[in-house]
Amino acid sequence: MAYSMSDLLQLVVSEGAADLHLRVGTSPVLRVHGILHRVEGPMLRSEDTEELMRSITSEDQIRSVRERGGADFGFAFGELARFRVSVFKEKGNFGMVLRQIPTKLLTLEQIGIPPSVRELLYKPRGLVLVTGPTGSGKTTSLASMINIINEERDDAHLITIEDPIEYYHKHKKAVVTQREVNVDVPSFAEAIRRALRQDPDVILVGEMRDLETMEAAITAAETGHLVFATLHTTGAAKTIDRITNAFPTNQQEMIRIQLSTVLQAVISQLLLPRADKPGRVAIFEIMVNTPSVAALIRDNKTFRIQSDIQTGAKYGMVTLDGFLIDKYQQGMISREEVITKAQDPTTILQKLQELEAAHAAAAVSR
Q1: How many whole angstroms separate alpha carbon 39 and alpha carbon 56?
Q2: Alpha-carbon distance 263 to 128, whole Å?
Q3: Which residues 6+ apart lie within 8 Å of 181 measured at CB?
Q4: pLDDT by residue (tens digit) across 30-82?
Q5: Which of 24, 66, 88, 355 is the least crowded, having the fewest Cβ atoms under 10 Å away?
Q6: Cα–Cα distances in Å, from 306 out to 21, 162, 237, 321?
Q7: Nearest to residue 33, comparing CAs of 134, 106, 135?
Q8: Rounded to 5 degrees, what are φ and ψ at 130?
Q9: How far apart are CA 309 and CA 285, in angstroms?
Q10: How far apart are CA 76 and CA 146, in angstroms?
Q11: What is the pLDDT of residue 158?
Q12: pLDDT for 103 beyond 80
């Protein structure tokens, strides 16, 4: 066989790739800065993907693939890197995607998270939601926030609940307990309920993927804990609606009241390709829960939250469109990205035209 798993993982690390795709009918594929690149070499055959898969997958996980169609797990590649692995069947063959988990924790400044987020890390209780599509860097942002709490708060027992565990945190000033779903505990909801008896101060919920988990996370925040959780939504209003709509109609009003009191902030993020050099840049929207925002959540008027974010800079709020314009002016992202990712494309197009007109006028007067 032309490829060994060890050589492929070495290549992922040396190229700084985010993902490695292994499929029958193509050579291995790396995703570097959002773009797919095929490794030079022969196409993988059915027996090749099976052999590569068996080199890192336990019998239990292989059984899970056979019975349930897939298995997800994390593993360490020596001291070099950790990977999150998804093994699955497609057209009767084994396929795999391995995502590289950076071992080095970035600071909030390196990620580009607005400074107002730092204040949230010292709140005694409440719910902080980090949202965005898959692969938008939510895990990385959360790991950096958890690391700050770990380094700076000697009053915190941190419990992380993940599937699988991605970043490993050592005990620093805080004490850290990391629990993996399906390894240490059967489900997210069960882990949160158990966590409440383990003297926690801060709880990180890797994903609020079902009603039970949402309920448990809100309860944990209500009972005096600081809870961080992620959702696959974009924007604060959509996030609040997504949680509310997960509940039966007769409970929705109650959930809105609970959210209006426990929610501290919604941080939405996207990762966009850089225009000025290889790499990607994180784009943020930050909504902080003020009395005015709380009233809009309670009264089911989330569509008005956007205007509160626009006028809430003094509370540390940041609009996605404002952030996009900012990065465009710094030459970091392209005009196309600004228009396609904007929440209000018409207004942003107008803003771009004004900026370009001002730029042209300035050039003439020179």
Answers
A1: 20
A2: 6
A3: 161, 162, 163, 164, 187, 188, 191, 206
A4: 999 889 999 999 999 999 999 999 999 999 999 999 999 899 998 888 888 88
A5: 66
A6: 38, 31, 7, 11
A7: 135
A8: -110, 120
A9: 9
A10: 21
A11: 98
A12: no
Contact by Cβ (8 Å): 239, 129: yes
DSSP-based three-state secondary structure for 43: coil
Q: Where are the alpha helices (DSSP H) in the chain?
A: 5-15, 46-54, 59-68, 108-111, 116-120, 138-152, 188-195, 211-222, 236-246, 249-262, 291-298, 305-310, 320-329, 335-341, 345-365
- CA–CA dist 204, 295 (Å, integer): 27
Whether the pLDDT of residue 95 is over 90: the answer is: yes
32, 40 Cβ separation under 8 angstroms: no
Instruction: Measure the CA–CA gap between 262 and 328, rounded to whole angstroms.
Output: 35
User: Taking Cα atoms as reference points, which of 121, 280, 141 lies closest to residue 206?
Assistant: 141
Task: List, for residues 195-251, the tens digit of each pLDDT value.
Answer: 999 999 999 999 999 999 999 999 999 999 999 999 999 999 999 999 999 999 999
Structure tokens belonging to residue 272: 């966009």
Q: How many residues does the chain have?
A: 366
Residues 6+ apart with CB under 8 A from 167: 101, 103, 105, 139, 143, 146
| 228 beta partners | 128, 204
Q: Which two tokens stand for residue 362?
A: 């300035």
Query: CA quadruple 13, 15, 21, 24: dihedral positive or negative?
Result: negative
Q: Report d(CA 113, CA 58) in Å as an integer.
A: 38
Nearest 5°: the CA angle 102, 268, 211 is 95
Q: What is the pLDDT of residue 219?
A: 96
Q: How many other C-beta atoms lie within 10 A of the C-beta of residue 354?
A: 10
Take residue 141 and report the two structure tokens written for it.
Answer: 């942002």
Token readout for 236 is 């604060």
For 209-235, give one letter per residue: b (16+ CB within 10 A) or e.
Answer: beebbbbbbbbbbeeebbbbbbbebbb
